[in-house]
Amino acid sequence: MNILLQAAQGSGFSGMGSTLFMMVAIIAVFYFFMIRPQQKKQKELQKSRAAMKVGDKVVTSGGIHGRIKEVGETWFLVEVADGVKIKFEKASVFASSSDVTTP
Q1: In this predicted model, what pLDDT tens digit does every residue of 32-89 receive, in sequence order?
Q2: What is the pTM of this model?
């Protein structure tokens, strides 16, 4: 009887250990396949925004194409047509036109 009790207790702990291992494995998969690549992409985007300068062609998050006329600390002044300038937050400018491929 004592042997059966020890076997039952051992298998219960073993089951709990494998469940814990599976949870850790799932978290690791999420981190390496979803969170980490997104962080890398975000850092790359921040670097590209910091490198943008006057005269660069850009595309905003709303799909507006234009050329940077002035750069502020948190904004860009973008000329979208002759004499038409719009101020955008840096966070809404996603790519320079050279980065965008046309089909």
Answers
A1: 899 999 999 999 988 888 888 899 999 998 899 999 999 999 999 999 999 999 999 9
A2: 0.59
Residues present in the chain in total? 103
β-strand 84-89 against 57-60: which pairing, if any? Answer: unpaired
Answer whether 87's CB lies under 8 Å from 97's CB: no
Both 42 and 19 in one domain: the answer is yes
Number of alpha carbons in the 13 Å side-chain half-sphere of residue 84: 6
Q: In the chain, how many domains are there?
A: 2
How far is the first Cα of the chain from the last one, in angstroms, to the nearest whole number? 75
Sheet holding 65-71, edge to edge: 84-89, 75-81, 65-71, 57-60, 93-96
| Claim to verify: residue 19 and residue 38 sit in the same structural domain | yes
What sign does the dihedral 98-99-102-103 (CA atoms) show?
Answer: positive
Residues 8 and 39 in one domain: yes
Domain of residue 74, residue span: 53-103
